[in-house]
Every structure is written in structure tokens, then in C-alpha cells.
Amino acid sequence: MKEYITKSFVFDLSRKTPKKLAITFGHLTYSASKLRNVANYEIEKNGVSIYELEHKLKDNFFARNLHSQSAQVVL
Fold it and tell me: 16-37 burial, b if ≥16 CB within 10 A, otherwise e?
């Protein structure tokens, strides 16, 4: 049986967050979610190991949109 670990963060951007910061958070969370989807696809369909993901997805568009440490956390 597979064991899944899920991390979840919730930000309330509706109140005192400046609009520019909310837009930035939106772009970063979008890139992080797309990178996670690409990583899951690589693992499921192509049989890539978790250890090979960082090297394989280094030049991925969504990984390049994130800070390197943030991309590592997503992977």
C-alpha cells in the first residue's frame, strides 16, 4: 500500500494584503502546484525515482519560476 504525505498551507489574502503581494503569491502558488503535477506525472507515468526528479526537472518552466529552495521543497 502506498503511503502519502500531504502538506497544506492556508493564507488569507482577502484582508490586509496589498494587491501586488497577493498577485505575487498567486503566481508562486500556481507555479508550485504545476511543478508538483509535473513531478507526479514523471513518477507515475515514466517511473522516475524521487531522487532523479530534481535533476530531471531542473530546467522545467515552473521550477524556474520558483526560488531554487522552494522548488526543492515542492519536489
Answer: eeeeeeeeeeeeeeebbebbee
**Amino acid identity at 43:** I
Q: Which amino acid is at 20?
A: K
Exposure string over 54-74, b if 16+ CB within 10 A, otherwise e: eebbeebebbebbeeeebeeb
Residue type, 67: H
Question: Cell match 525515482: residue?
Answer: 49
Phi, psi of 18 (to 5 degrees): -60, 150
pLDDT (tens digit per residue) in 7-60: 666 766 667 778 888 888 888 888 888 888 888 888 888 888 878 888 888 888
C-alpha cell at 42: 514523471
